[in-house]
């Protein structure tokens, strides 16, 4: 059962988000299906993702303050996001949640929400 409050608070706040992001981008940087759509230097991508997940999990509105409304689909239109790449990204995220020791039921709740977001991001079937 989820505790009252936000997922952000329940998983340990910014420290937990930082662990997730560090692990996520370690995996993204090695994934053959994702390498083609990410820059060689993942630092800025990780920074934006950190801001987004902080806000997405119910923490401070860092993404909005830095970048405005997320408009995720629009911001990602320049990248070919296929069903295979969606699955690859979710695979990396699943590993990151495990490595960051995100406990249940939060891990499943986070993964479910991010799966819905990832499906929404698909912009090509190729």
From TrEMBL:
<keyword id="KW-0479">Metal-binding</keyword>
<dbReference type="GO" id="GO:0020037">
    <property type="term" value="F:heme binding"/>
</dbReference>
<comment type="similarity">
    <text>Belongs to the truncated hemoglobin family. Group II subfamily.</text>
</comment>
<keyword id="KW-0349">Heme</keyword>
<dbReference type="Pfam" id="PF01152">
    <property type="entry name" value="Bac_globin"/>
</dbReference>
<protein>
    <submittedName>
        <fullName>Hemoglobin</fullName>
    </submittedName>
</protein>
<dbReference type="GO" id="GO:0046872">
    <property type="term" value="F:metal ion binding"/>
</dbReference>
<dbReference type="GO" id="GO:0019825">
    <property type="term" value="F:oxygen binding"/>
</dbReference>
<dbReference type="InterPro" id="IPR009050">
    <property type="entry name" value="Globin-like_sf"/>
</dbReference>
<keyword id="KW-0408">Iron</keyword>
<dbReference type="InterPro" id="IPR044203">
    <property type="entry name" value="GlbO/GLB3-like"/>
</dbReference>
<dbReference type="GO" id="GO:0005344">
    <property type="term" value="F:oxygen carrier activity"/>
</dbReference>
<keyword id="KW-0813">Transport</keyword>
<dbReference type="InterPro" id="IPR001486">
    <property type="entry name" value="Hemoglobin_trunc"/>
</dbReference>
<dbReference type="InterPro" id="IPR012292">
    <property type="entry name" value="Globin/Proto"/>
</dbReference>
